[in-house]
Amino acid sequence: MHLYIDPGTGSMLFTILISIIGAGIYSLRMLFIKIRYTLSSGKVETSAKKIPFVIFSDNKRYWTVFEPICREMDRREKDILYITESPDDPALSADIPHLRAECIENERKLFTRLNFLNANILISTTPGLDVYQWKRSRDVDFYVHIPHAASEIALYRMFGIDYYDAIMLSGEYQAHDVRKLEKLRSLPEKELIQIGIPYMDEMAKRLKESGPAPEHPLTVLLAPSWGPSALFSVYGGKIIDVLLKTGYHIIVRPHPQSFISEKEMIDKLMSKYPESENLEWNRDNDNFEVLRRADILISDFSGVIFDFTLVYDKPVIYTNPNFDLGPYDAWWLDTPLWTISALPRLGKELTDENMESLKELIDSCLTDPRYENGRKEVKEETWCNFGDGASRAADYLIKKEEELSKKQD
């Protein structure tokens, strides 16, 4: 008799096994670090006085998530320590009096700092707390997670949010998934606070203040993600060929990671399709202007889809990435991903079969009123407290810190 394990279960079991092994190895490693630092007169940077608020960012691109909250906390004269892994993080030069930012590039030093931190509250977009290198510090009272996009909370790698104490959310569907995972794994309930999406509030405010985009020809923005399921990996230059045939102005904006992880492929595409009157390549650090100029977006599973449709109120054409959910928290859920129900309301799906009819897809998305109505529905589901996200985040954090401080008195 042969034992059969389906691929999804196999992926899950493999992930669990790796997590257990990784946790055991790291526990031994942390014990060694503690002993070493104790014997060397305690060189771990700790403080007898708790830091009220700490933000940890593992990449500079998450500054847009944290900046509105930092500015609101500064307005209320609340001090924040901002720890970043990026030496060019805008937080390091931000003109915010109550923000003190420090960069720790060395991974060992970074996790040592975090794992021995003394603080009331730590806020981060980074999943995987207490799973691998990043362990809960016994001297940090409360960990708060904030997603970096309007999307599934269950599309983190398995156990990504399990050991946070609270999560700041933007929609009820996210809360439903968190509660389901907690029940399945016998975890204590986290505090779930629907604050909204502060960084999208700021984008919407900036768009309103900037006014309409300058007059321009009908413009299509091709902005794929990166990896084996992304647009360029699946279709290569074929999609650019088809787009050029439409006669529309085409902007190609690869994911920043593509220039690192897929450099050879991107270099070949940029060489084969050089800039011309109808084609431009965009690498702006700030995507605001390119999103404002575009009339429609073509993407895959990039989070820019929701920025474009919900902030700029424009349609999209998307691809189905056919994810293997095995490594993700979503594997545990018996309900379909919210994104699967949202995307058809925002635009049309691009497939092998309709690729040659891309011009017709574009024209249909731009003129069909159902997509305008669909954007309103999706916005209501995933962007609560429109325009008030940073204020609600600050309200919660300040109240929670006061509550924690009283317990320590």
What's the pLDDT, averaged over the residues? 89
CATH topology tier name of the largest domain? Rossmann fold
Lateral arrangement of strands in the main beta sheet: 3-2-1-4-5-6-7
- Give the radius of gyration: 23 Å
Encode the helix/strand succession as letters: HEHEEHEEEHEHEHHEHHEHEHEHEHHH
Give the N-terminus to C-terminus distance in angstroms.
Answer: 64 Å
Instruction: Give the biggest beta sheet.
Output: 7 strands, parallel
Explain what the structure shows.
The structure is a single chain. This protein is of the alpha/beta class and 409 residues long. It folds into two domains: 41-197 and 387-408, Rossmann fold; 204-382, 3-Layer(aba) Sandwich (Rossmann fold). The chain has 15 helices and 13 strands. The protein has helices spanning 7-39, 63-75, 107-115, 172-184, 198-210, 231-235, 238-245, 258-261, 263-272, 288-293, 304-311, 338-346, 358-367, 369-382, 389-408; strands spanning 51-57, 80-84, 99-103, 119-124, 140-145, 166-169, 191-194, 219-222, 249-252, 279-281, 296-299, 316-318, 347-349. The protein has a seven-stranded parallel β-sheet. The longest helix has 33 residues, at 7-39. The chain starts with 6 loop residues before the first helix and ends with a helix. Mean pLDDT is 89; it is low at 1-9 and 29-45.
